[in-house]
Structure formats: structure tokens, C-alpha cells
Design a protein that fits this description.
CATH topology of the largest domain: Rossmann fold
Shape: globular
Structural class: alpha/beta
Number of helices: 12
Number of domains: 2
CATH architecture of the largest domain: 3-Layer(aba) Sandwich
Bound molecules: phosphoric acid mono(formamide)ester, norvaline
CATH superfamily of the largest domain: Aspartate/ornithine carbamoyltransferase
Largest sheet: 5 strands, parallel
Helix content: 40-55%
CATH class of the largest domain: Alpha Beta
Radius of gyration: 19 Å
Strand content: 5-15%
């Protein structure tokens, strides 16, 4: 596999390899400090980023390479140069391209046109690198044996809910999304794809609309912002009203399993999708999860550039 364009591109074996290597990088970040020596990784982002940008730049540095950060409108793309011409030029200078933008189709086209690995660092539809950090965190807390555990995402049926369903399906987990019905539910095509993957891995996929049913006995409660980057401001009021019952507060947390954890990809908005008492409380693992963005992106770059990722053939 050349690129990581969608979470669903990864096989279970790929995820296991990446988590194993990431765990090694967590212990010794300089374990492969010359893997990208004299090489460059372009990081192109048309949306803001705190974690993914820092994780990507530091990951490249720890592999001995040089990151080149390119902000959205810095490229000639905005002035009509095509994606395929851009991909061709970047491929001549860099050894990998990490890209964060709006349309998944743009990332797909970059992948098709570039001769170097292209990594999706978030689109409107997906966030594959986040899920690697999430599952490294889950693995550290609960170990490999996850039978009988329930992994619930609560809130907006957005890119994170999609990635949550797909990665849970790949990992053979009991995954749940509890979101509003209709407009802010996960894309039915993604749900169908998660169910197809689940049929081969023994995962259980539950797409529900009741936050309390989602929280009950869950080992993980995961949530994300209600207004994602690029969401129309005009929808804020209606969306906030519909999502209010899905806010993760102490009451919902108290319905979860005794050893449950709270996860969030961040950035968080205390008092909206999560109460301060939860994200700043004893069950929250969000800081560890955020630091694993670096170790997992480091592992991904390391293996993708070497051609070790087999993909979900
Ligand atoms: N979780 C995440 O992707 O954070 P950033 O938007 O800060 O990169
Ligand atoms: N759903 C959020 C995730 C941010 C990491 C967004 O797309 O803005």
C-alpha cells in the first residue's frame, strides 16, 4: 500500500504492526533516528491544526528527516494549478506528503497523482491517523483482550464518528455510535462499510440515537466537537440544541463500566460536548492520547516509506 487515504485502507495486521512500532517509539523516540536522514516530508494543511501538525513535524524530526510545512494558500493550487501537477512537483522534492483538507476526493486525487506516500491528516469524512493514537491508548489501558468491552462514540456523526466505526470494525470490537438521527448521524455508506468489515473480523457495529444506551456499561466514552472545521456557522444554534443530550457529563460517565475511560481527539470545548469534570477528571486519558499522535504518525511514516504496509486488499 502506497498511501493512507482512509481508515478502511488498513488491515488488522497493518494496525498491529503500527501499534507495535509506535509503542517502541513511545519508549525510545530516537530508535530509528536515521530512517529519514536526508529526506523531507511535506505537510500541507488547509485547515488549522495543533496536534497533528506538531505530531507530524516532531515525528519527522525524530526519524532524522526534515519537515516542510505548507499552509493552505501558500501553494499555486489556490490560483488554479491542478492537484495532479502539484502532486507531481511535491513528489519530486519530498519523500512523503501529509495532507489535511476539506474534500476526501482531493486527498484521493493527490494519492493517485503523487509517486510518494500520501497520508490523510483529516478530511471532512475521515481522520485515520487519530484512530491509530486512540487505539494505542486503548491497547495500553485495556490490553489486547477486548472481548465483552463496548466502545462508544457520542455526539456528531462526523469524520471522527466514521473513523471510530471503521477502526473498531477492523479491530474486531463492539463499537457504538450514539448520535442524533438524520443530518447529524454518520454517513450510511460508512456504516455499511463498517458492517462489511465487521463481518470478517467478528466486530459488532451499533448505530443508535440514545446517549444513555450508548453510555451504559461502556469501557470507552469518546466524543468530539459539535462544530467541525468547515461546518456552516448558520447551523450552530440548531446543531447545539440537537446535540445537547449527547454532552458527556458526570451523569453519563457514571453509567459506564467501573474501569471506563474518557477519550476525545481534541480540541475540546468544556461546557459543550464535554463537562470540565469529565475531561479534567480521573477517567480522562486525553493527554496521553494526544501525545500518542506523534508516536503513531512516526510509526506510520517509518513503515509507509519502507513499503511495509500491506493494506486492506
Ligand atoms: N486531534 C487533532 O487532529 O487535533 P488538531 O486538529 O489540533 O490537529
Ligand atoms: N471533527 C473535528 C475533528 C478535529 C480534530 C473537525 O473536523 O474539526
Amino acid at each position: 500500500m502506497k498511501d493512507l487515504l482512509r481508515t478502511a485502507d488498513l488491515s488488522r495486521a497493518d494496525v498491529e504492526l503500527l501499534l507495535q512500532t509506535a509503542a517502541e517509539f513511545a519508549v525510545d523516540p530516537l530508535k530509528a533516528s536515521t530512517a529519514l536522514a536526508h529526506r523531507t516530508v511535506a505537510i500541507y494543511m488547509t485547515k488549522p491544526s495543533t496536534r497533528t501538525r506538531l505530531a507530524s513535524e516532531t515525528a519527522v524530526a525524530h526519524l532524522g528527516g526534515t519537515p516542510i510545512f505548507i499552509r493552505g494558500d501558500d501553494l499555486q493550487l489556490g490560483r488554479g494549478e491542478t492537484i495532479s501537477d502539484t502532486a507531481r512537483i511535491i513528489s519530486g522534492y519530498a519523500d512523503a506528503l501529509i495532507v489535511r483538507t476539506y474534500a476526501q476526493s482531493d486527498v484521493n486525487e493527490l494519492g493517485k497523482s503523487a509517486s510518494i506516500p500520501v497520508i490523510n491528516a483529516l478530511t471532512d469524512d475521515d481522520h485515520p491517523t487519530q484512530l491509530l493514537a486512540d487505539w494505542l491508548t486503548i491497547r495500553e489501558v485495556f490490553g489486547k483482550e477486548i472481548g465483552g468491552r463496548k466502545f462508544t462514540y457520542l455526539g456528531d456523526g462526523n469524520n471522527m464518528s466514521h473513523a471510530w466505526l471503521i477502526m473498531g470494525a477492523i479491530m474486531g470490537a463492539h463499537v457504538v455510535t450514539a448520535t442524533p438521527e438524520g443530518k447529524w448521524a454518520p454517513d450510511p455508506a460508512v456504516v455499511a462499510q463498517a458492517k462489511t468489515i465487521a463481518a470478517g473480523t467478528g466486530a459488532t457495529i451499533e448505530v443508535i440515537h440514545d446517549p444513555e444506551v450508548g453510555a451504559k456499561d461502556a469501557s470507552v466514552l469518546y466524543t468530539d466537537v459539535w462544530m467541525s472545521m468547515g461546518d456552516p456557522e448558520s447551523e450552530r444554534q440548531a446543531k447545539t440544541r440537537v446535540l445537547a443530550p449527547f454532552a458527556v457529563d458526570g451523569r453519563l460517565m457514571s453509567m459506564t463500566a467501573p474501569d471506563s475511560i474518557f477519550m476525545h481527539c481534541l480540541p475540546a470545548h468544556r461546557g459543550e460536548e464535554v463537562a470540565a469534570e469529565v475531561i479534567d477528571g480521573a477517567k480522562s486519558v486525553v493527554w496521553r492520547e494526544a501525545l500518542h499522535r506523534r508516536t503513531t504518525i512516526q510509526a506510520l511514516l517509518f513503515h509507509l516509506v519502507r513499503g511495509d504496509i500491506q493494506g486492506n486488499l
